[in-house]
Amino acid sequence: MALWMEQGSVPATESEQADLDAIAAIKESAAVELKEKGNEYVKLGKKHYADAIDCYTRALNQKALSDSDHSVLYANRAHVNLLLGNHRRALEDAQEAIKLSTTNVKAFYRAAKAASFLGLLGEAASYCQRGLELSPENEELKKLSLQVNARREEHEKHNARVSKAVSKAKELVSVIDNRGYKLGKAMYRELTGLKKPILDKSGILHWPVLLLYAEVMSSDLIEDFYSPPLEWDKKHEYTRDAVELYYQAGIGALMSKKEVLRHLLEGTVASEALCEEDNDAEQSPQTFISPRSGKWIKVNEKKTLHDVLHQPDYVIPGIPVFFVVSNRSKFYKDFTAGKWASP
């Protein structure tokens, strides 16, 4: 009997051939029935999508239909997987459908849609193009093609912005390093936000500067050189000839180059970018130690900002921070005696 024949063997008698034909007919009938039942389950809605997938899978397992019919089954299963949000499975099914029939327009559409959901915009565009070559007036494919191309264009623009931001940040890291500045982890973020230095086209480094008035813990963030009167200075002690600037020596954790780059990219379009091309080993950040650590160092007003930032014991906490005190204030004596500490 044909049921006992080994796989791949040739029937020896007409009876065995007849048995094989009958078995093939039964399996074909079962596959067709399962396909139709799957289609009915799809029409019944989301609660029956799993049943539809089961029917299409069982129909494929019969291995009794033509390549063209199997292509339809794979495309149908891809459709249901799309409805369920199983985009990777949908793409795999649509790709199988295309392998079996390169004229299956629905398979190209579903492959394009699944690839688009997965962010594979190049593949999605290719499937749209191949589908439209078969069916130039297919409205669904034309609409999807427009959407995919628009996303690709925006993606390319985004990548260009990211690349530009990373390039500028790397240049800034190099300048900061070459000038011998020690950049530490940002402090006083509640006052400075995401302010960072800017390198202009002439190679001039522009720093925003935070001034902290230690006596009253008020602050000014200097982005330009306009400075309004201090409303809280009722005694007019903080005049130009009376104020002195200080920084605290050796305070803060030094950042590695990679951390500096991430800091400079924070808040930009490239904040999530991984700098894959920079594979140099990074040193772990270390707490800076100086013989004068923690002491208040008076800023010599005759020095440039570069000179001050270049001081061996000054760790820049994200952006330059200076404490402003008035030598006419009662607070001045406590401050210079080291009896006051930053909260």
From TrEMBL:
SUPFAM superfamilies, alphabetized: TPR-like
GO cellular component term of the entry, any: nucleus
GO molecular function, one term: Hsp90 protein binding
GO terms under biological process: protein folding
Alphabetized Pfam families for the sequence: TPR_8
Domain of life: Eukaryota
Database matches in PANTHER family: TETRATRICOPEPTIDE REPEAT PROTEIN 4 (PTHR46035)
Protein name: Cns1/TTC4 wheel domain-containing protein
Originating organism: Dioscorea zingiberensis
